[in-house]
Specification:
Layout (H helix, E strand, L loop, with lengths): L7 H15 L1 H34 L1 H28 L1
GO cellular component, one term: TAT protein transport complex
Protein name: Sec-independent protein translocase protein TatA
Pfam family, one: TatA_B_E
Length: 87
């Protein structure tokens, strides 16, 4: 028994028919494209995992940056208020 109840002889016959219909060059191109797609998918998954790890480490940095931004905004607001009152 082969895959899903298909015998090995039937699988070989299907393979021969596919080779005759598409040709080896076309199948080689399809195989290369499929391999490239799988490789790209795997690298994207690895990048996603590394970004998740980076995101876990960043909240403290982001919080300190947002506090610095608030301080800058406060200083800018007070200086603008002074400019308006002096005009």
């Amino acid at each position: 028994m082969g895959i899903g109840g298909i015998s090995v002889g039937s699988l070989l016959l299907i393979l021969i028919i596919v080779l005759l219909v598409f040709g080896t060059k076309k199948l080689r191109n399809v195989g290369g494209d499929l391999g490239g797609a799988i490789k790209g998918f795997r690298s994207a998954m690895k990048d996603g995992e590394s970004n998740d790890k980076d995101d876990d480490q960043e909240p403290a940095q982001l919080q300190s940056r947002s506090q610095e931004g608030e301080e800058i905004t406060r200083k800018t607001d007070t200086s603008e208020s002074r400019d308006r009152s002096s005009s």
